[in-house]
Amino acid sequence: FTFDRREYQGWPGDTLASALLAHGVRLVGRSFKYHRPRGILSAGVEEPNALVHIGSGARLEPNTRATVQELYQGLQASSQHCWPSLRFDIGALNNLLSPLFPAGFYYKTFMWPASFWQHYEAIIRRAAGLGTASRERDPDRYDSRNSHCEVLVIGAGPAGLSAALAAAETGQRVLLLDENPYLGGWLRKNAETVDGQAAPAWIEAIETELRSREN
Fold first, then answer.
1. CATH ID of 151-211, from 3.40.50.720, 3.40.50.300, 3.20.20.140, 3.10.520.10
2. What is the pLDDT of residues 79-88, one digit of tens each?
């Protein structure tokens, strides 16, 4: 895979974030306002710093969290909200001017004269935002699916799994949704025991039970 045109290698199951960390890459983004250097802070969808572009051209996907982007062969990732490069970002000059940009400064400046707003707007629009959406037409087609249930469980952590199983045992149609491609949530990353079983074994057992039910 590549990050900012530099080639790296990863392992199946790696996220973009974990692979970059394994290669010693610490700088992955810039802060929104002052363009200060930012590294990877978390390990999931809550990641505020490692937002990157994935792909290119018509298949460019901005604002993708590197902590949830799974590696695949040929993945192309690039930094965003910086120019001309991540390491040398002209926008970092904002940090030197930070005393002039206190919180809420944008509510008190660029207000006069009103006739100048058309000029201010163009500059502000270029400075605002993070990633850049592709201007090309998306060539892909996307599937959709309609599902119906009596009980909808959002989150497949230990509580969600238990709730889904309890509802399924009543004979109701249950739909269990999670943002991750696996069940168990935080429990997969902790050395906990549930009902006397190690966490991985408990997750596997309850997953098997849920999959065996038609509802």
1. 3.40.50.720
2. 999 999 999 9
